[in-house]
Amino acid sequence: MARLETAGFESDLSLFKYDDLEQLPERYRDLTEADRAGRIEAAREELGDEVVVLGHNYQRREIVEHADFVGDSYELSRRAAESDAESVVFAGVTFMAESADIITDDDQTVLLPSMEASCPMAGMAEALQVDAAWEKIESAAGGRDVIPVTYMNSYADLKAFCAEQGGLVCTSSNAADAFEWAFERGDAVLFLPDKHLGRNTAAELGVDSVTEWDPWDADSPDAAAAADADVVLWDGYCQVHERFDVEHVERAREERDANVIVHPECRREVVVAADEAGSTSRICDTVANADPGETWAIGTEIHLVNHLRRWHPEVEVISLCGDACMDCNAMRQVDPNYLTWLLESLADGEVHNAVEVAEREKELAEVALDRMLDL
Prior knowledge:
This protein is an alpha/beta fold. It is 42% helix and 17% strand. The strands form four sheets. Strands 8-7-9-11-10 form a five-stranded parallel sheet, sandwiched between helices. Strands 4-3-5-6 form a four-stranded parallel sheet, with helices on both faces. It has a four-stranded parallel sheet with strand order 13-12-14-15, sandwiched between helices. Helix 1 (33-47) runs parallel beside helix 15 (336-347), helix 3 packs parallel to helix 4 (94-103) and helix 6 crosses helix 16.
């Protein structure tokens, strides 16, 4: 595939090496849960320590019950890197599999059950868009040093871009530390791709000079605003967390007398209205440490809410907006039948859906991750 030269950053359109893009074989499409569970366990037993299965917090029960580790994206990548498994099956979305490929050893292969599991928010900050925006922002800044910071929920080429431009990666847990790191080295921060996490982090640090950059509006006056702002927010967002609103918080308190905790990917007004805000790890810890009988309304993806309800039956755990909403469409693509197919294929010596980040992007992205780890 061709390579593109844009704004001084070389973007590789063959960022992923997808060994297999085929649809799920027909014989796997109508498995019952009982048959599927037995076959997964049989394949796991045959593979032994050769494989480690990672289940993201937002995956359904039928996935996480077969995972060696359950957690958020970077935590799971670390678990994979610490293991001796030859194959890492990441039941998550593409940027997570990329991160695992970046930090695992070269002799470990990262596999994604479904190549359709691609995070919409990560897709809101494509490398070509960012290259073009960066050129405009730097020109408007007039000599001010702008440091790019990207959320972990982004593709490897964007992580690589940030490293090359003197920036770094952050998680929702350490975003404030990443902002402070950037301000120590520059005059302003460009935060990608989640504007809500960026705005909440700026507010936490008392930064008032904040503007948004709309990459889809060619006639936007964003460049003028970006010239003076301390924080420039890329106009991206999580489609799950953006749907929570203040009315949900008020209703949970009025109708259920609930404590409310939300993810910082939620809108600023929702975070302000909630009792607490934090990463998926903090949400899990909050429920785990709650007193028996307490009610907690959780403003995040519904499958994590369901897990917490099962894991902590002594606490009343409810979804902030009810159980019929707020599931992640990308995570839904990782069907348990795909996991069955992938594991049985491995047991038969067949490798499908390997994710391999291009070498140059991998090296640079690892720099951005290392800077985060040095905070």
